[in-house]
Amino acid sequence: MDPLKTYLGRLVLEELTPVVMVLTTPLVEDSCRKNGLGFVDMLLPFSVFKKFDVPVRTVNDQPYRLQMFKLRMVYASDVRQPNYEAAKEHLKQVVHDSGEKALSDLLSDPPQLETVLSNSESDLCPQWIQTFNKELIRTLSFSEHETFDHPVACLLVVSSKDEQPINKFVDIFNTNQLPSLLNDGLMDPKILKHYVLLHDNQDSSPEKATHILAEMRNTFGPNDCKLLCINSATEDVNNKGFSSVPYKTHGFLGEDIARCLNLEDLKSIKDFMQDLNSNHIIPFMEQKIRILNQQVATTRKGFRNQIKNLWWRKGKDDLPEDPSGSTYTFSSIETQIRILGDYAFILQDYELALSNYRLLSTDYKLDKAWKRYAGVQEMSGLCYFMLDQSRKEAEYCMENAFSTYLRVGSSGQRYASRCGLWWAEMLKARAQYREASGVYFRISIEEPSLHAAVMLEQAAGCYLLSKPPLLRKYGFHLILAGNRYYISDQIKHAIRAYRNALFVYSENAWSYINDHVHFNVGRWYGFLGMFDVAINHMLEVLACGHQSLATQSTFLNDFFHFVQRLGKSFDVCKLQLPVINLFSLKIVYEDHRTYASTADVDVTESLWQALEEEMVPVSTVRANWLDSQPKSSSRKDDDFSICVAGEAVKVEVELKNPLQISISVSSISLICELSASSEASTIDRSVSSAEVQEDTNLMKTSFCSDQKGENSSFTLSKIDVELGGGETKRVQLEVTPKVEGVLKLVGLRWTLSDSVVGYQHFETDAKKKHKKGKRSKHSWKSSLNLIVIKGIPKLEGRVDGFPTKTFAGDLRLLMLSLRNHSEYSLKNIRMKVSHPRFLIPANSADIHEDFPQCLEKQRQMENKDASGNAKNLSRSAFFSFPNDVTIRGGETFSWPLWFHSGSSGNISLYMSIYYEMEGGSSDMTYRTLRMNYNLEVLPSLDISFLISPWPSRLQEYFVRMDVVNRTISETFLLHQLSCVGNQLVISALPSCNSICSMQEIFAGQTLSCFFKLKVLMTGEKNEESVQGSDMLLSSAISNDMLLDVSRSPLSDFHYQERYHQGKLVKGYQSLLDFIMISKMVSSNLDSEEGPNQLLLSNHACHCSISRTSPIWWLMDGPRTIYHEFSSSFCEIDLQLTIHNCSNSLVSIRVATFDSMLETTQSSDAVHLSDNSNDQGGWYDVSLTNDIKLISNVQGSRSQKRLSESTPPFVWSALSSTQLAMEPASTAKLPLKIFVFSPGTYNLSNYELHWKIQPQGEGITDEVKNKSSSGLGQGHPFYLTVLQAP
């Protein structure tokens, strides 16, 4: 790296240069003012020697050449440290002037990321910032602790018009006119003096000046005197303008600049400065360096001098600190060493300068002269940089100098800033941008707001130049800089800084700082009177729901204030207030599908299609007028949706107020375009895929044609809403096309607080955001582009009396009402219901019936096949109205419907009604009306049954019914219990008069009832039947009548319940069903309904019989027999009835035993034998107390006792019989016993061994839980055999 090619190298060569003090007389300045310049200003363009090739030799014998050199010409009155306040004002003016020049840039668009990243270092650090840095450095000139600002030479200038010019040279160089630094002994008064005689050619001829020059040379010496002639220009316009070029490049502007100077004058000035520099100043400095170096070598260099210096300075350790080091005079050795180092640095002998700075650094440190110590450390760092040596040492010196300046206090703070600028530029030259930004930030901490703002902006630029770019730090430091600019009343610079940071925060979700940037930029633009730009930025912060209430109020008030100050209407595309939720955008249009309400559109299209599958024809209609176009057209059907002329297209969208403040939104309407059919037929087929322009002018033009009028092709609706804080409202807008054509939905238009008109474009914004609609086959594009056709009139429908909340089992009669508003008649009406379990059509005659009286059981049924018809009807949800049913124009058609809430929960019922138009021409052949009702069904009564076989009857069952009221506050009256199927009859228990002991069941109550079921016929029937048994539970009320469960609608709903409950039954489904009819005493749901108006039917289907064995058997035969035992033994025939209760094939083996393992004896009428006597299954009963015994009977009895091995009876035939029984079958097995003596016998000494032969899954749950085989002991059967009289 060549330091001279870096910005810091050039800056050092421009700023650290020899100072030439200038003393002039007033007449000299008067001559120069003819050119709009001072004497120093006149010499300034020629004090820089860029193409300078002069050999220089300092302390080495080998000379080197200077390529660039500069002289700083300074009036003697300016050789002083500038006033701090004056310096601040000067720097403020520099910043202000640059802001005025950058005003035009504020009207352009803010820079984007790609543009900023492509900027070079010079773009990020513009010229005015470099000028500011230079001016900041120059404000620290002529300090008491540094010597590179000490004048090297003094230029004494006297005019040829002055009286006694020789004496004037002596007078102007006296102590009264010299700088204070010279008079105070801080500067060496023995400097090079050069005498100049200035002659104005416009005042007199040069002869007088020549004479004075000769006298000067005799007095002051021939080499130090010069004559300079100026103002030689005439009125020749050819010279005018050329002479001012050098001065304009240095910032001197104006018509009078150099107007009296011609090219010869400029050449003479240039030659004068060249001679002064080459022949006087540089040789003087070379000689001074050699002299000082000899003195330093004599007094300070060498081992002996170093020891002597340390010993001498050791005694200064007890002295107090002197941070400024004011005790050093120009004659002190320390000042001489500093002058030697500064002269060597100025003449670019950096090694000599560094050696002297290092020598001097130790002295100042030992003397605790911290300000001077920091100064030499600062210069040492620059020497290292210019030598391109030891980066570490250079940074250490700059860090040390910076910290030491801050240690000094307020007097060193400004010098720390200068040191920081050197340091930061040094790091930037080495591409250490991140470290340089840290230095700038440290400078900003110590500087006032304006200076800190410039430093923070430079720090931001360094973060952007880092690899990789640190964008967040870049933006953050720009915001800090902009805030400091605003504090310093530099609004233009504040705007510029904030605008440059916008792209950082617009790409991220940092809402608070993004609001801060946009709001302040907008506010500052408003301060400058640029209200249109201010409003554009304020629009970005309107939707600031995350801010506090006070902040939101401030944002909104300032926005409306700027709109009012603008003085004209303001239209905004994508106005953020209110927030338009395009995700909620829903376009409702009706083609052949119509809807009873807006909520019906939310139902998934696939559900409607499945419902209408068997009702709607497969092939649809003649198409619309577009079908007449050539088939080569590239337009696809999917590019368009279809709507009907004269019917509104509804657009639902969600508006949200993100603020905590209420806002007024008025005149909300759609922006639409409609091309008539004659025009649309000539449109290119790919028009639907073309993008609609997004600019506001197009939107305004489109809207202007939307206004209502006689010639308008469509009408629009307008609505006004008031949105409270944080409120969200869903609005519905309508557009009604009047003619056929192509309708395009462009966007929305609204007015905010009667001040600002907002637009929202659909296509460009919804293209990537639009949710897939409920109609899955339509895209957002087809929803925004609609073909308007002539269609069938729309049918309006509703179901009167449909509840929104009810209880499970609720049975009602509803009314379907269809209204035809057109003049055409409608025919071929069909209906499909999604849940026939809840809703079925009734007969047309039911419309005139009273409910529930129409359900009462009649003695003579008019229609015995009602159950069969109901069965077929209930199994299909499709219903065709009679062929003679038509709905004429302007009429309302009604048809009754039966409603039954089959199960609890949230239920959605869907209905679709198909119809066609009678006569007329249309692009459609049919339409459908879709209706959706949501229902909440609450639990009411839960009924369960436990059925057990009657122990002494084969075809009778013992039933326990449990009823639970699941409601919280409702009371039900039990009205009727019906048994459906298998020809069963309900009856009360023998000891009871009724089934239920109480008819009312209160909330949360459980009621248990017991009754008996009996099979009417012994033969089993597999055919399903709704014939059953009914029992009135509310017997106390004589007026109540039984309801006929075998007729519609109870039979229809029962089949539905049986079907749905059968899905939950695993295995064999029983045919035993129950229906419980009840009434609600009072209802809290519908206040208009009085008590006893709510009728409920609860269905319990597939009730099973509780069993422990798959078979059931019963012994049948005589109980008492008289026989004459004297003639023969008694032969008795018995019958064993066996029933297979399972759904499987059962193998049964019956085994009989002549003796029993266990016997019992009756203690009273029946005296059983003792357990020790193995009497088998017979019992010897003493009849002494009951009948008169015959002697031979007693004899035979005694004989029997004598023969202990002979049993009193035996089983006849085989001891074991085996049979196989089909499912649900009954078999009767004949048995026979021989009784040898009178008595009472228990014929239970037999066993039944069974084994199930599984057939699929047709096994009851009870049997599944048991083993597949088992053993059953005989039931007790007592037989009494008496001796015949």
TrEMBL record:
One of its GO terms (cellular component) is TRAPPIII protein complex. Residues 809-929 form the TPPC8 second Ig-like domain. It comes from the Eukaryota. Residues 1118-1248 form the TPPC8 C-terminal Ig-like domain. InterPro entries: Ig_TPPC8_1st, Ig_TPPC8_2nd, Ig_TPPC8_C, TPR-like_helical_dom_sf, TRAPP_III_complex_Trs85. Signal peptide: none annotated. Residues 605-805 form the TPPC8 first Ig-like domain. Pfam families: Ig_TPPC8_1st, Ig_TPPC8_2nd, Ig_TPPC8_C, TRAPPC-Trs85. PANTHER family: TRAFFICKING PROTEIN PARTICLE COMPLEX SUBUNIT 8, TRANSPORT PROTEIN TRAPP. This is Trafficking protein particle complex subunit 8 isoform X1. It comes from Ananas comosus (Pineapple). The gene is LOC109715216.
